[in-house]
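Hey Z.,

So I finally got round to the S-adenosylmethionine thing we talked about over coffee. Here's the setup:
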Amino acid sequence: MTTTEPPSVTQFQELVVDPRRRHAEYATMVPRYYQLVGDIYQQAWGASQHFAPYRSGQSRAEAITALEHDLADRAGIAAGDRVLEVGSGVGGPACTVAARTGARVTGVDLVPGRVRAARRAARERGLDDRVSFHVADATRLPFTRAAFTAAYSFEALCHVPDKARAHAEVARVLHPGGVWSGYDWVRADSAGTSRVVETICRAHGVAALSTLDELHRDLMAAGFTDIHVSDARTLGDWEANWVLLEELLGLLPPPEQRQPVLGMMADGGRALCDGARSGEFLIGHWYARRPGRTA
Ligand SMILES: C[S@@+](CC[C@H](N)C(=O)[O-])C[C@H]1O[C@@H](n2cnc3c(N)ncnc32)[C@H](O)[C@@H]1O
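And the result:
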């Protein structure tokens, strides 16, 4: 199969059913996944493809933008900063952070088609002089030591099998004193063998979900300090995400008439809603700092 040929859902499902293959072959699995679902994601979610806590009366767009603004503000990102986004997708968060702060934002993503879409989004928003995107793996960042003053990620590390190495790479390219913060899909301590968590992983091209403790441990091992790791449910109401997801699932054709990719997405969406409500699936939040003095 060439890289331009779309994979079949069957090929993808043969790969993801085996957790060892999800780890060993993630660099094939993740691009295949986004080749299958990327256009549907973009239609459903737009350029920012993560969840967010809702405050009273907020639309989805407002809740998403508020979370991206909060992250930028809390990290103290300002004009002139050089900021890295890990797993930048089709560019929504990078554009919002750049527009909010005046910083230069560099996004990296494993999937070339998503990097091309992100570049288009930056051009359309008139931000391409300050926002750039590169094809790169979070575990092998193509940047020199201390190249960035801050770094962040929204719901991308879940795809990465060696999360400890991704955190260590960010520590390497972050300036002393720089903040590394973000959100990721995690699982409850008790959900190691959960059927719902396994369905989430298979249906979303995710190697495995960490626990909050493992996230904390990886940040420590990478040498970060001032580490705060939390269950993001403390930040607001996440239920609106699952209600919206269920509404979208309700628009799908009946199961017997669904294309296989929609069947897979329906299983995955159902598992996210069920897992979030049972507490087996969580959004984890972290904030940490590279030791040393800011520039
Ligand atoms: C759910 S999307 C989120 C995208 C973006 N952060 C957002 O919130 O809109 C996760 C992204 O992580 C990227 N990704 C997955 N594994 C990666 C890796 N090893 N290195 C870099 N990016 C990766 C995927 O290609 C995808 O674009």
